[in-house]
Fold this protein.
Amino acid sequence: MRKQLITLTVNGDRCEVAVTPDMRLLDLIRDELELKGTKEGCGEGECGACTVIMNGLPVNACLVLAPQAAEADIVTIEGLTTNGTMSLLQRQFLDNGAVQCGFCSPGMIMTAKALLDDNPAPSEDDVRDALSGNLCRCTGYEKIVDAVLVTAALVGQGSAESVPGEGGAA
Amino acid sequence: MSAFTYVGKRLPPVDGEERASGRAQYVTDIKLPGMLHGKILRSPLPHARIASIDTSAAEALPGVKAVATWADTPGVSFGPIPAFEDWTILAKDKVRFVGEEVAAVAAVDEATALRALDLIEVEYEELPAVFDPVEAMKPGAPSINGRERNVVMPFSLERGDVDGALAGADLVLEEDYYTNQVYQAYMETMAGVVRPEKHGGFTMWLPIQIPNKSRLTYGKALGVRPEDIRIIKPFMGGAFGAKMEVDLHLVAAVLARKCGRPVRIVNTRHEDIVAGNPRVPMHIHLKMGFMRDGRFAAKEVRIVAANGGRTVYSPPIMATACYRVDTLYTFENVRAEGYAVDTNTVPTGAFRGFGNSQMTFPLETMIDQAAAQLGLDPVAIRRRNAVPTGYVSIHGWEVGSSGQEQTLDNVARISGLASRRRQAADTGPVRRGVGLAACNHVSGNKAFFPPFDGSSSIVRIAEDGKVIVFHGECDMGQGQTTAFSQIVAEALGARLEDVTVAEVDTQVSPYGLGSFATRGTTIGGMGVKKGADAAKELLLQAAAEHFGADILALDTEQSEVYLKADPSRRVSFGHLARGFIFTHGGLPMVAQGHYVPNTVAPDPKTKYGNVSPAYVFGAHVAEVEVDTETGEVRVTGYWASHDVGRAINPMQLEGQVQGGVAQGIGWALMEDMITREGRIANPTLLDYRVPGSKDVPRVTCDFVEPVDPNGPFGAKGIGEPALNPVPAAVANAIYDAIGIRFTELPITAEKVLAALRAREAAQRGRGGQGFV
Ligand code: FES
Ligand code: FES
């Protein structure tokens, strides 16, 4: 199939990738850039495991075609770690017991980050609404919801340092 | 305050950072040099003879490296259970369910492999099919695997005087129930990466619950010795019982052998739903006798369970449903009759609860019904029959610890059960109700693998004092690695951060049975604790020489050995290990330990025998709101108390309970593999809905810790019991809300609405008489 060269920014790095018209953003991320943190749980937009942030909004990378990501600014789970240190949100996922098998976690965390970037003081309902497209079969969601609420509270108290360049404290 | 450093602490997962940062490597993330991508051609028909297969066009497609059919396999029949070997890696001359593996392709990429599948021509001659196990047992039903009446395994058992007890009972209830087929829906689909090795062997990277045991089955299937198969289990994205033996692993091996290159196969979600190992659906007929004071006089059950087109684990699951609940209460008179029956549907296997969860639904709803009819409190009737510590059940199960009464009291207290009940009298369209249900389970099951029971470990003290633990169990995402780390750190007196639990690699890990029967914490935990105990001995011996002191004068903490009389005199594990290793020519400082539980394989005829070293109990309360205009049920509150022996990590325990409750709510209210003529009609996560963040309430957890004599630090298991009572608790809450009992899962809005309408019609017809 005919390939086309696109340029995009992923986790702050400019990259040039040869993509086919039918390649998914998920394949670009996982197979071309070898960023395996983003998971595929269904390939049909139903589980959220593939969630990345594209131009500030959470998207299912399995539903976006790679050519549509030309010139886009993408953040994946790998982009939340700075010099080997996880973000506050990731830390809170662990400290609150929100990670079991972890297969949903990258997508969950990206969706939660997008929520907190947009709404730094969400209610529990806001969090449950925002996460409703991300399936987790292990945790029953309660500890995930808590992790997001605790992160928001800590950021609100100013007791957390924001992660530079990632558009917010989360 | 507890005297423990790590046991009982709310610690985050020791391997959590990899998972939360995206660094954790799952099988689906592995990419080996030269790796090809495999795809499986699956049967489109539920029952058909294969007249011919033509793979020539597929083989000719550029990029295709191998095409395999039955002729490329060793051609032997095999299966997870030696008594029922009805698998072949690829179908020989007949397919028995939609989704059965017929042929496979390995190609340079998935797209090419998929195009090649389209080019394989299979000619089928359709055969008459049968989908329901009751139908399949009838005379004249199509024969699926050549078994008489399609019965894979019958089961029967009788103890006490059932007929006499029923005749003398004050109340006898009898009902038909149906527990439907549901899908585990782990987020990582079935997968495997297989590399061919010398002497016809393989290295397999698999998400698998039984990395050691599966090699027995796989060795037979592939015509190699089990030791020629090396299985490595990396991070795993959930399993819940489904990821035992999986045919896809063998298909990948056949392709890898044929083309001499590593092959990766990952199920699409669609394939995973149509050809996974979903829960065994069961028709359950239950009859129970009750005495006026609430004692259970007798229980009689008849179960017909669907095996699917080939045998995974439905026979022991059906057997489990027949009698595991007999140790939930002090039953004395029981009779059970069960059948696992071939059907032209997806093969059925283990799903959290292993049959016990199926049976808990009828049992706990019938007890609720009896309590209401006898005017007894639902807690009181269960307490009346509760199992005490030291109890030996009618089947010889030795209950070394029981916190059952306390779980009942505690869940009633934390939920405010007494004050919440009887809101069914409310008027208005939305009715609220609460329901109680109890559960039991094992913590290990000798019957599952009769050759041996137990667990072992190798503990190595590295020259820098780090502790590496090798075991043969399986963390499928439930947090076993963290629990093992805590147990080892505690037993050894090591710093938690110094302990590494190695991933299972059968080339170096001890032989272990793996994750099933809620055995990991109890039996696996004892295996690693024994290894840690032995490693501590080694370190104390080395320190005794170092200090010139008696071994009894020494102890360990924080990865150091110290003199008990003068704790300021200390020596680090690293110093001792270097001393040992460098004076022994580099000999590893290694200890091993093992645990053999007091279990026996039940007598094949009488089924008598203690199958597990420990038994667990729990009690749940669900609160629901039923919208009588739409039939919609929402679970608005949930409380769970579990007897866990000893809590190793309360945060992880809560996670297990909350996850189990969410799965149970899904099963109770929404999840159903809708099968029409053998085809699953909803094979996507859009149509097969599992609970999302807005479908489940908060779950208030309580843990009772009677400290079991057999578990590590007294700990017992939690995985399966967390789900077992949920459908019954929800169904009982619905009854409390609207006065209607449901006997079939799931209790969907349509069913609720239809039942409400039927009652209205009957009330009108009968001048206001309810028929509940
Ligand atoms: S993989 Fe994209 S939503 Fe499931
Ligand atoms: S932690 Fe396993 S799916 Fe969410």
Q: What stands out?
A: Residues 282-446+604-765 of chain B form a domain with the Aldehyde Oxidoreductase; domain 4 fold (CATH 3.30.365.10).
